[in-house]
Amino acid sequence: MPAVTPAAPRAAADVAPDTPSRRTRALTAVALLLVAANLRPAIVAISPLLPEIRSATGLSATLGGLLTTLPVACFGAFAFLTPRLTARLGRERLVVAVLALLTAGICVRLLAGTVALFVGTTCAGAAIAVGNVALPGLIKRDFPHHVALMTGCYATALTTGAALAAGLSVPLGRATGLGWRGVLGLWAIPAAVALAVALPLVRAANRREPEAAPPPALAGLWRDRVAVVVTSYMGLQSMVFYASIAWLPSLFRSDGVSAGAAGWLVSYTGFISIPSALATPLIGRRLRSGWPLVAAASLLGTVGVVALVVDASGLAAVSMTALGLGSGMSLSLALGFIALRGRDAHRVSQLSTLAQGGGYVLAAVGPLAVGALHQATGGWDAPLVVLAALLAIEIPVGVAAARDRFVSGSPPGTRGTEGRVHARPTGTLR
C-alpha cells in the first residue's frame, strides 16, 4: 500500500480567506464612515433652500412640505428591499450601488423642471434608505470586536454630514452664485469621493469566502419583543428629530428670529449633537445598565422643548444645545440597539431592515402631524407638548431596548457581555 504523504501546511491566506487584513479593515472603516457622512446631506440641504426653491419653481406650501417629507418616506418604503438586494449583490457591491444611485439622484436635480427635482430626490432617498439598513450589518460582520466604537463613529458621521448640509447650503449659494440647483448639485462631489473609496471593497470581497445565505425569518421579527422595542425606539427618536428639523426654523421666525439666524440655530443643533453621538457608546461601556443614557437623552430633549415653550428666541441657545445633545445621544443609542441586538451580521441586517423601515415610516408622520396641529391651533404650544410626550414615551421603550437580550433566531445560550449596548469594556466591546 502506498504511503500517505501528510498534506503540507496551508498558507494563512488559504486557512482563513474570509479574514480581512488590517489594511482591508482600515479601508472598510474609512469607506463606511464616508458612506455614512453622505447619507444625510442630499436631503437635509433641501430645508434651508426651500424658500428659494418654492420661489423659483412656484411650488405650493403643500408640495414644498412634500419635498421635505418625501425622503423620510423613502427611508421607510425602500428599506424593506435591502435583504433581497444584499442576497443578489452582496454587501460590498450593494454599498457601491447605493453611492452610485445617490450620486446620480443628486445630479438629476440639476435638470430643469420640478419633475427632475422630485425624481432626483426620490432616487437619493431610495439610495439612502438601503444604505441606512446595510451599514449596521457590515459593522457587525467586519468589526465584531468593536461594534460599540464603530457604531458611535457611524452616528457621528451621520450627524456631521447633516450639520454641514444644514449650515453650509445657504452660505455656499451666496458665495458661489450657483443658485439652489447648483448648491444641491455640489453634494454629489462628496458622494462621488465616497464611491471611489468604496470601489476597492468589491475586489476585497471577491477574496472572501461566500457568506451563508441569510435565514428567511424577517417576518418573524414583527412578533419578537426585542425587535418591536428596538423599532419603536428608532421610530420615536426619528420622529422627534425630523419634526424638529422641519418646523423649528418656522417656529423661530414666528418669534422674531431672522431667516438666516433660524437656519444657523438648526445647524448648531446638528453640530452640538456630534460629540454626544460619539461619546454615548464610550460612556455606556462603563455603565452596567443602559437606562441612565436613555433617560438622559429624553430629559435633555424635554429641557429643549420646555425652553422653546417658555421663550423660543430668548432661550434659543439653551433649547438648541439641549435638543442637539439629546438628539445625538438618542441616535447613537438607536443604532447601537440595532447593531448589538442581533447575534450575527445576518440577524443584524434583518433587524436593521425592520427597525429602520418601520421606524422611518413612523418618523414620516412626525413633520406632517406637527404641521397639521400647528395649522389647527394657530400656535406652537400644542405641537411642542406632543414632542414632549413622545420624548417621555422614549424612556420606557429605550429601557426595554437596552436590556441584555438578542432578537429571536439567535443561537441559544448567547446572552452575555457582547449583547450589552452599555456593558463594561470586556470581550467584544473593545
- Give the structural class: mainly alpha
Helix-strand topology string: HHHHHHHHHHHHHHHHH
**Count of discrete structural domains:** 1
Question: How much strand content do the residues show?
Answer: under 5%
CATH superfamily: MFS general substrate transporter like domains
How many strand segments?
0
CATH architecture type: Up-down Bundle
Output the number of helix runs.
17
Low-confidence stretches: 1-18, 410-430
- Enter the CATH topology name: Growth Hormone, Chain: A
If you average the pLDDT, what whole number results? 79
Oligomer: single chain
Profile the largest sheet: none
Radius of gyration: 22 Å
CATH class: Mainly Alpha
Instruction: Tell me the span between the first and last alpha carbons.
Output: 54 Å
Helix content: over 70%
General shape? globular
